[in-house]
Amino acid sequence: MIARFYVLDVPENEGVVDVVSRTDGVEVVKVGPYCRITGDDEVEVDRRATGARHAVWYSSVAGLEGSRIVQHDKDALRVVSR
Fold this sequence. Notes:
By secondary structure, the chain is an alpha+beta fold. The chain has helices at 14-21, 47-50, 54-58; strands spanning 2-8, 26-31, 34-40, 42-46, 61-64, 67-72, 76-81. The protein has 3 helices and 7 strands; from the N terminus they run E-H-E-E-E-H-H-E-E-E.
């Protein structure tokens, strides 16, 4: 099973995309105006590593596909497969 979510491809989300693109087992593909982020079973993103301010962080997820968010707080975002 895979974990998959989307973020809007805008400068504010570059930190998120950069961090996940350097994560083993995670693939980032541009799909229209979005970046589709896919990983095996779970994708975890450390907020501090992204450099995102809280307002940007909490609005970064644009959609989910066959997945659910199990953590989205000031520390991390964790998306897991259903």
